[in-house]
Amino acid sequence: MSLEHAPDHVKLAVDLIELLESNDIKPQVAVDALTIVLRDFKGKIPSKDDSQKASKVVDQ
Fold it and tell me: What's the whole-number average pLDDT of the chain?
């Protein structure tokens, strides 16, 4: 199956897997590191409350 038409998140996941495997990263080390990365990036996603606060500031 070609990744040509796959969504960006699937392409990125495949690239990350290839990177980790080609560098012989142990599975538990990868999981631990990716857990930190996931927590960090989830923190960068604006919540509904944040977007409502931002619109209130713009409206004022």
Answer: 89
